[in-house]
Structures are given as C-alpha cells and as structure tokens.
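During the first year of the project, the team set up a workflow for recording each protein of interest as an amino acid sequence followed immediately by a discrete structure-token representation. This format lets reviewers and collaborators read both layers of information side by side without switching files. As required by the reporting guidelines, we include two representative entries from the current panel. The first entry is reproduced here exactly as it appears in our internal archive.
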Amino acid sequence: MPAPETIAFADDILILIDQTKLPGELATLECRDIQQTHDAIKRLVVRGAPAIGIAAAYGVCLARDDAGHRSRDAYLHAIEYLATSRPTAVNLFWALDRMQSVLQSTDERELPDRLLAEAVAIHDEDREMCHSIGRNGATLLKGKQRVLTHCNAGGLATSTWGTALAPIYQLHESGEPIEVYADETRPLLQGGRLTAWELSQAGVPVTVLTDSMAGSLLRTGKIGAVIVGADRIAANGDVANKIGTYPLAVLARYHDVPFYVAAPSSTFDLTLDSGDLIPIEERGRDEIAKPFGLTIVPDQAEVMNPAFDCTPAELVTAIITERGVVTEPNREKLALHLA
C-alpha cells in the first residue's frame, strides 16, 4: 500500500503528514495561517527540500493582514517570513521566488486565485519531476539488487515517490528485484523512522542499520550502489545533504561503489560557486543531548548539531534529475544540463 501524500491543500487549510510522529502514529497537522506553516517547517513536521518548497508556497496563500484581509502587503510579509524558516534547502527560496513573481505581476484583486494556482503548479510539477527522476535513475540502479540510502528522500520529502527513492519505486513497480538498506540517520532518525516506514508501506524490502555500520556493510560487497537526495547543489556539483552523507560518499568511493545523487533542477543553486558557500543549518542542543526526550549527554558537555554536510563533486558518480543523468558532474556539465 503506497503511503498517503505528504501535503494537501483544501478550503484554505494546509494539511501535512506530521512526520515527527512517524512511524508510531500516522497523523496530520492542519495549518491555517503563516505562523503555523512556519512552525511546521521549522519543527520538521514537513521536511525534505521539495516538500518544504511546496508547503511554503501554499503557506503564502494563507496570509491575511491584521484586519483579516488578503492584501499584497500580507502576501509579501508571508513570503519574507516563511523564507526565515530554514536556511539550507534552496527549494524553499525557489518556490517563494515564484510566488513573489506572481505577487509583483498580478492585480491585487486577482492575487488569491493566481497565487493558489502557482502553488498548485509547483505541487503538480514536483509530482512530474519525481516520476521523471524515477525513470532516469532506474537505468542506473537496474540489476544492482541492493542499494544503500541515507536520511529520507522519498515521498515524505516531496509530493510523491521522492528523489533518491523514486528509482527504487520505479524498479519495484516494474517487477525488478530491489532491496534497500537505510541508515537510521542520526540524530533524528529519518532513515529508520521515515524511509523504512514508507518503503514498508509500499512493499519494498528494507533493512535499517545504524550510521556507523555503513562501512562494514559496504565492505561485504552486498551493496550495488548508494543513492541519496540533496538539499542544495552548488554550481560545481558539490552537494549539501543530511549530515552523514559526506562520510558515506567517502566510504562508497573507498569500496568502489557508485554514489548517486537524485534531485530536481530546483535544488541547484548556480549562484554559489562551491559547496563552501552553502549555508549549513545549526539545530538545537536537545536533538543531540535529549533525543525524543531521553537524556543521553550530560549537561556539562557541549554538543554540535549541523543538520547538513557537503559532499565534494569528485565523490559523486552521477547526479540524476528530471532532465536526465550527469555523470562525473562538474561546473561545465551542470551548466549545459540546466541550460
């Protein structure tokens, strides 16, 4: 049974699967204003670069001024406010830029309908991109049988199917044998909680391992490929993704296992020359020291909690987008691919 869609919008309500409660409970959260939408993105009720962008676009449609009216100023404030929710995933800013373009080019009376139409278009386009990434990536994964992934880059992180999981769903749907090993993904366990949940819902065989087991697993020779998503890709092909992706790429290279990145074209940021310029979100202490309410670090100890790391392009075997596949990505190849 496929998992339900992550995001829906009806009757001026943004409806999100509450990913903080998975896998124990499948619950939804209703957002009726921009404050609730901002909080949902910040708290990771909705997460994954494409899903954040879609949610923010719908969030703009919820904007009202102090008198409860839909106005140009209220929409502008919503765009500016939602842009502060998370700094790394470029899809957030890409989607909000599209909403801003509509805001600047539309008569105020037509804004509610035009903005909602743009948000729906962003949502629909993401569905198409996910399926295209699935078809393009399946050509690389076919025959691999066992793949390793990190964090969650599936349907929960997008509109449907996802990015890194899309080729897996494509192969599974066509009857090709495919089995997934999912890093648990410390500190919030998105691999164990989310990837394993949605793959199980779809009937795809999945095994969860701790992040520190990945090297030993790769050494066995069982894994045919590693595939991950991305939150931002710089012009030279450096990839920002969930913390722990970079060491996984190093391990894959050492063990001669192809390392694939799957992402839509909206995840590329050609204004940044390299991954060194990608802003990396620092999250709160309790995610490390008291995960899920359990104290595991003494109060006297400091913690570090970057949400993402950056993998150099030279460690990436290929980047899969909705447009095709870029092998051994570099600045020139990506510029041509995205032109």
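The second entry, processed by the same pipeline in the following quarter, appears below.
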Amino acid sequence: MFPKDLHPLLSSAAEPERQLDLLAHFESTCLTAPPRPRVHWALGPSAPERCSSALMARTMELARRYDIPVYSHIYESRGMALQARLTLREHGGSLIKRLAAEGALDPLLNLAHSVWLARDEIDLLAATGTGVVLNPQGNLKMKCGIPPIRALQDAGVRIGLGCDNCSCSDAQNMFMAMKLFALLAAASDPLPGPPQAAAALRAATESGAESARLGHAIGRIAPGYKADLTLIDMSDPTWSPLNSAVRQLVHVEAGRGVRHVIVDGAVVVRDRRLTTIDEDEIYDAVEAVMPGFRRDFAAISERVKRLQPWLDAAHQRMVSTELEFDRIYIPF
C-alpha cells in the first residue's frame, strides 16, 4: 500500500541480534545466577505473529524448565485479528489455534490485551489454563477496542490487569485500570452481571501474582505472604461515608489517598514521599533530557506526517474489512 519511496520511513518490530543466542544468554546470565529476593524473571516473545514456531517452542521449553512466566501480545487491534484470518488459514485464521497446535498454550503463558478473541479461542484459553492481562486504558486511547471481559470471566480464564506503557496509556495508575475494568465489563455484555469491583481488585492483585508465578508469596494479605501493602488515608472525602471498602477503592479512589507503601516489609513511600530515591533529583534529570527528546519527537512527527495519508488509508481499509464480531465500533 505504501509507495516504494516511503519504505525507508517505515519501521518494523525490533529484530533480535543475529550474532547472539538471546535465550541461551538469558539462561546463562540470569536464570542460573544466584537468586535475588525482589528480582524475578519472565520471558517476553513480542507476539506470536512475529515469532517462528521454533522460537515459541524453545521459549516455552525454557519457561517450563525454570517455572517462569511468559508474556506475549495477542489481538490488541482489529488489524491483528484480520492478519491472522488472512495468513493462518491452516489454523482456521486463529493465532490461538496456532499456539495450541504448537503446544504453547499453558498456565505459564499470559496474553496481553486479548481484545479481539473469538468465543472458541476463549474456550481454548480456559481449557489450557492460559491467562490474559488486560490493559483497558491504553486500548481505549488507541481505539483498539473493549476486551470480552464477561466472556473471559464466564469461561474461567485467569485475568490479570495492567497499565500498558506510557506511550499509549499515559498513566501508570492501577486505580484507574481497576475502575475501567469494572466499567467496561458492562460494555462487554448487554445482560446484567455480577458486581465487578471485587473482580477488578482480584485482577490487580491475586491474579497478577498468579500470572507471574508468585501467587504463593504476594498478591494477598495473609500469614506467610510478603508484606506488600498500600496504606490509604481514609480521611479523604473518597472514604466518607465508608460503605464498601472494595467498591470505593475501585470506583472512587484514584491514588490521591495513598500515604504509605510497604514492599516486602520495607517502607518505600512514607507520607507520600519516596524513601529510596531523591524525587527532586529524578525530576531534574527528566528536565535535562527534555530538549533532546523534543528534537527527536519533532523529527519523528515530520516523518509520520509524510506517511499519514497512507496510514489513514490502511486504517480505513482495516475497519471496513468484514470480521465476524466487533469490539469497539457502536453504531448510532
């Protein structure tokens, strides 16, 4: 679709270093190194469509050998689902069925976004114990869609919750993520369903810990678990009157009430100030790099400006191509 003279302006996913066996290097330098109490490892193949079957098989073998989680992207956008329909006909047009055929579906595997999953794909995830990690704010900002939250819940799929990265989500705020999760569950199914505040809190805590293979140590306040605690100032109007701690935490609190944070028994935030680093030093360092960042951003913006008509045409083609279901576009 893009003219040949614009091809040099296009970029693709980062390619691995051809002269280095990254998985072997990771195993020798990280997985076999002496353990560190707060450092835990995971594998992150970018997305199945960017990975060969051999790479996915080797990744999952390494994960199983060391019992570490794997995180990968799946069906963030409509375009990714369409790509699967067009390129994976031998797997019924499904990335999930391709992963199933490769033996990659596993409780160790977590699929980020999972917006454009079909019903039979959700059933495959449930049958294999494969989890998802939803990122509602970034998916809305990028117009990717609303994940099938109720269908995932009804099938019994493990659901974790994330904030995505700063370039597409802006706020690394789990309170905001929980609120959107609870609200978007209603948009994912027209029928009344169970209250979602407790499910949102569970996705942000217990399920996230389970997805990281740390469900035995964190994610709950219970004997034998690490002392990872956030202390909320309940003198804030958010908490007056106190009717339901869970509902008010999810639907009303936005982070303003956070006063102290304890990680593994150590106080890392006291009276809303970090104890482990100098906050002013960090702010000064950010200001120092901003002139160079703005120059780089201006150059990238100029490059994208040349590509924009073709990007718009590609997007229009994507949204007008028929798919068997929709996840965002509601006709009025």
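For the second entry, the following points were noted during internal review. The chain has a mean pLDDT of 93. Residues 279-320 form the longest helix (42 residues). Both points are flagged for discussion at the upcoming steering committee meeting.
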